[in-house]
Design goal:
heterodimer, A: 196 residues, Rna Polymerase Sigma Factor, Chain: A, 10 helices, B: 120 residues, 2 domains
Chain lengths: 196, 120
Amino acid sequence: MSLAERLLIGRLKERDPAAFEEIVRRYGDKVFSLIYRMLGNRHEAEDVAQEVFITVFKTVDSFRGEAKFSTWLLRIAANQSKNRIKYLARRPTDGGELDDAAQAGLGAPGVTPGPIAHAQIDAPDKLLEAAEIERLMQTAIAALDEEHRLLVILRDVEEMSYQEIGEITGLPEGTIKSRLHRARMAIKEELDKHTK
Amino acid sequence: MDHAEAQNEFSDFVDGTLAEIKRAEVEQHLAVCIQCRTELAAFKRTLGSLGRLKQTAPPSLLSDVKQQIYKRSHGRFFAPRWKLFGRIPFEWISLGTIIAMLVYYLAVLHGSPGSVHGAP
């Protein structure tokens, strides 16, 4: 952990509002992206992302600096996402449905489009195709169990190293690699069904 | 190496974490197997699509979180500031008030006798 980050965490432990704002600005996208891809539902993801940062504000004293702050933060995000998945599974009609990627990424007011939706604004066909691929990908991710889902999101969406993934999940590298391969192949097969 | 064995190594092959000998075996198999080459291309496309799924947080995330903390802490943290005075240090507001009171006091003290136009 760098000196600047250590100082920032120190200020956060003193409940300095500016330090907290800096943390949300710095890690907001990463936390939201992870949660959104875990849940596939923007409304739920917004709610869980808020809860994650509230937890950080409340429990930052328990962060001892043994791991990177981002690792600690993403572990909270991963755990709260898994809890929400379980909660929604018990209440399937209460907001647990997946977003329509086209709606979530393109049309909803105040919503920043996903990177795929950013593609080719001047080419509607390509835009629709990108949105359709995004929808298929999200459906394929949602078909995985939560452990496999988390690994594929951390590695392939968030592009984290195996070491970081190990610190977040507590899994050994060999287990991460074998589960990740199964998850990737399952997503590929799901996509193959629609593209062949 | 058969199809299944080669495809089992795709993740490590693409990630570049495959041991040298194993990598050579996969490459040898790919060189002669069009089916596995097609599967590998599809596998890489899948990873490419996953890499484009990053999302940005809604712009309201920070203000929503602060509002929630304010509510749950019963106003202890992130109290909304009055727009004008929230930006001016308290010491300056105090000093301004004291000066205003002093000016008013002096005006009343020195202004009163002169301003009284008593009856002749």
